[in-house]
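User: tokens in, sequence out, please.
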């Protein structure tokens, strides 16, 4: 269940016995101002806690000859490790390389070889060897910070509420529980029960957010991909040279 920012705030106010807001972004009422600020804080904190499936995005990099550094997306929060692939050659890019390893690749009497290496530095993804051709496609997955869907443009996802009707992408009851906790924390009140409520809903939300593979008690992982075990010996030449 999803809700907009004002719906979340009204539910929180009702449960805490606070004045029910009629507006947030343009409000001059102190409780509404505080609730909006804490809602933005709560949402951005939740982004950092878990790799939520709705925040998982794919970014494509199209190389330019002689250019080894490429900016991350504007909504980038963090990298999903081991997801950068050289799509043209159908093989992974290895990394992220440590600062020590990067210095070795740049300064020692060695080469990076034919396989791409990468690091994340200065808000950029950097590759070695530097691509020498245009149009090479590298893609990777990352967690975005866009937990708010814009009411004015549903294709835009941001990290801050700017309209009362903006849709919160977190589960409605999760953000309600967390905002209640943060409101009482800000006021210096006892949060024992509110923390317990939030932790219970948080555990359920993270546990249900992703699917899970079927595990076999017989042992031995069976891969669905073609490999030496799934292709029998033989001559697979499709024609006469």
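Assistant: Sequence out:
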């Amino acid at each position: 269940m999803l809700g907009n920012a004002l719906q979340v705030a009204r539910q929180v106010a009702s449960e805490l016995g606070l004045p029910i807001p009629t507006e947030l972004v343009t409000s001059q009422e102190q409780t509404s101002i505080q609730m909006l600020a804490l809602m933005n804080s709560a949402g951005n904190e939740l982004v950092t806690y878990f790799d939520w499936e709705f925040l998982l995005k794919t970014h494509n990099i199209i190389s330019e000859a002689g250019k080894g550094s490429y900016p991350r997306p504007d909504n980038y929060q963090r990298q999903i490790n081991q997801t950068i692939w050289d799509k043209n050659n159908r093989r992974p890019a290895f990394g992220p390389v440590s600062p020590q390893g990067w210095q070795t690749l740049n300064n020692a009497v060695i080469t990076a070889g034919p396989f791409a290496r990468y690091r994340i530095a200065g808000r950029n993804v950097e590759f070695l060897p530097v691509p020498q051709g245009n149009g090479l496609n590298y893609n990777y997955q990352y967690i975005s910070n866009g937990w708010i869907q814009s009411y004015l443009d549903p294709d835009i996802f941001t990290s801050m509420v700017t309209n009362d009707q903006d849709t919160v992408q977190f589960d409605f009851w999760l953000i309600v529980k967390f905002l209640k906790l943060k409101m009482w924390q800000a006021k210096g009140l006892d949060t024992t029960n509110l923390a317990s409520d939030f932790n219970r809903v948080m555990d359920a939300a993270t546990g249900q957010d992703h699917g899970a593979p079927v595990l076999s008690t017989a042992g031995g992982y069976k891969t669905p991909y073609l490999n030496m075990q799934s292709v029998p010996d033989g001559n697979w030449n499709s024609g006469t040279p």
